Amino acid sequence: MYRSSAKARGEYRRSFPNAFPQLNSGVFGFRRSDAMTAFLQAWKVNVQDHGTGKDQPSLRELIWNKDLRVTILPPEYNLYDHHSVDVMVPGRHTAPRVLHSHRLLRKSLPARGQDPVKHYFGAATAYKLQLLLEGDKTLSGSSGRPARRPSWLEKLQLLWLYLVDGVGRLAGRN
To answer: Do 79 and 43 reside in the same domain of the chain?
Structure first.
């Protein structure tokens, strides 16, 4: 996502074309096989040998050098920048499937029965995610319900929640 940064352009043992960037390894899926087991073992050794604790530069090199089929999941399967939810439009953007954030490590666990998304990301983001899910045409077919756009009342409620969350952040409550 931030391919222009020095960190993302960092090299392990060699340079690569800009069209083959480092991959975010925070969410990683794979099919279990001998080839994948060997790949993961080599990746572990390379990260340990590199000495920086950075896994993405060595992952980039290993994928380049191995004969593995690789598919990059779209951003909704690894939403790291939760602020991008603020600009997503229900019915136009696909809803996030995986929320990947350091906020999940920094805050206490939610109370029993409390909405975890609301606890970690605030009421406005939780409501916006609900609207995105309801408007996502890629999910509506499998759920048996049609996708829908938010009503003017829901948009007004979302605006109110953003204002309340913003005031809470300014007051130091989040």
So the answer is: no
